[in-house]
Specification:
It is a single chain. This protein has 10 helices and 11 strands. By secondary structure, it is an alpha/beta fold. The chain has one domain: 2-enoyl-CoA Hydratase, Chain A, domain 1 (Alpha-Beta Complex), CATH 3.90.226.10. Helix 2 runs parallel beside helix 3.
Length: about 290
């Protein structure tokens, strides 16, 4: 007499059990994993302008986005800037330091990272450039207050209320700002820095090759290699590269972030001396005529 198959050993039951216990959860996991744990990303932030209120705001907002988005594992700063406002340059330096405490930040110089723009870059884990990039101009520019005078119709509660201070006091303030700049570079570059303060205080602009010899940068590589280096520092081998500007601010002409194209760089404007600057201190490259 033939034995009937036990329900516990039925092939159909085993197949259904495997389907619901193994295959179905695996399929759901494969579908949900990218949505729960997003693919790692390297975020690109571009500074293509002078450093003032608007440009500093755009950079700090993108850095904040990178810190709060779990998909962003590293940041690449692409710099094309002659510097700008001392206060805003210092703000960017501190914000890059803040971001660096949470993820790798790597800076790369296309055409120019001068003065306040290099100040910001000094906070990154590593800095790269092209052989003919412009790097440096480490120093401060400021307008001195005018001569003190007495105005009979003007009442102030202090002798320098209308003038901001003395001219020699302004000189001391500029020197303090310069030493703060140098200290930031020493802290950021550490043992990699080969130049002393006296040499850097000359505020020269160096090529990428010279900057590498002086320890102001870590190498001469293309931006794509910089992105790979940032991913390597973050410990990820499979990742996407995303432009953070359209993710943070949107874009009128490109709806998808992966189609975003940064605005072209106006090299002539980038190197042009500043005009009509409001009074204050600036970490800003200013090229003087050769005969001066």
């Amino acid at each position: 007499m033939a034995e009937t198959s036990s329900p516990e050993r039925s092939p159909l039951r085993l197949i259904l059990t495997a389907l619901f216990v193994v295959i179905l959860p695996l399929a759901i996991g494969l579908y949900a994993a990218p949505r729960i744990v997003p693919r790692p990303q390297v975020g690109v932030i571009r500074l293509n302008y002078e450093i003032f209120g608007q440009s500093a705001y755009e950079i700090t907002e993108q850095l904040a986005y990178a810190r709060h988005d779990p998909a962003i594992k590293a940041v690449v700063l692409v710099i094309n800037s002659p510097g700008g406002s001392a206060a805003y340059s210092e703000e960017l330096y501190l914000d890059v330091l803040n971001t660096r405490s949470e993820m790798p930040v790597v800076a790369t110089v296309d055409l120019l990272a001068a003065s306040g723009a290099y100040y910001m870059a000094a906070a990154a884990d590593e800095i790269y450039a092209k052989p003919t990039s412009g790097v440096g101009s480490i120093g401060v520019i400021a307008s001195l207050p005018g001569a003190v005078y007495i105005e009979e119709e003007l009442l102030t509660t202090g002798p320098y209320k209308a003038f901001g201070g003395t001219r020699d006091g302004s000189v001391r303030q500029i020197e303090r700002a310069k030493f703060a700049f140098l200290e930031a570079i020493r802290n950021g570059r550490g043992d990699r820095l080969k130049a002393d303060d006296d040499f850097l205080s000359r505020a020269e602009i160096f090529t990428g090759v010279q900057a590498l010899e002086l320890g102001l940068i870590d190498g001469l590589i293309a931006n794509e290699e910089v992105e790979r280096r940032a991913a390597e520092l973050a410990g990820v081998s499979s990742y996407d590269v995303v432009e953070l500007y359209p993710l943070v601010f949107g874009d009128e002409t490109q709806t998808a972030a992966y189609n975003y194209q940064p605005p072209p760089i106006d090299a002539q404007k980038l190197w042009a001396p500043p005009v009509n600057l409001p009074p204050g201190m600036y970490y800003r490259l200013v090229e003087l005529p050769a005969n001066r």
